[in-house]
Design brief:
With about 110 residues, the chain is mainly β. About 0% of the residues lie in helices and about 65% in strands.
Length: about 110
């Protein structure tokens, strides 16, 4: 994969350390950095809750980014785009062909 295909910018979020009011080091959800990636839609599904009008839509994506952009991925990380959509990590693995990229399977839940 060429780096020219990394044409979408997403914010990488995860658990970042901070000092709380008791001067202890704690962790909270926070933005780590912006990265460039490629998003490939995989599939989606819809479901209803009982006989209500509440509908839940889930989409699955495969996101490719450079390994240098995310040195140590963790399952509690997620991406956010400029519209505030949250891409939750489901799993990740290296691109075994060149070992230069991460392939990260994510999901978005719309309710």
């Amino acid at each position: 994969m060429e780096t020219s295909k990394l044409n979408i910018q997403l914010g990488l979020w995860g658990m970042v350390p901070f000092k709380n009011e008791l001067d202890e080091i704690d962790v909270k959800e926070g933005k780590i950095k912006d990265i460039w990636c490629n998003i490939v839609p995989q599939h989606g599904s819809t479901s209803k809750t009982g006989e209500t009008d509440v509908e839940k839509v889930t989409t699955i994506q495969k996101i490719k980014c450079r390994k240098l952009s995310i040195k140590n991925p963790k399952i509690n990380m997620f991406f956010k785009d400029k519209n505030g959509l949250k891409y939750e990590f489901l799993d990740f693995y290296p691109d075994y062909k060149n070992n230069d990229f991460w392939e990260i399977k994510t999901r978005i839940i719309y309710e």
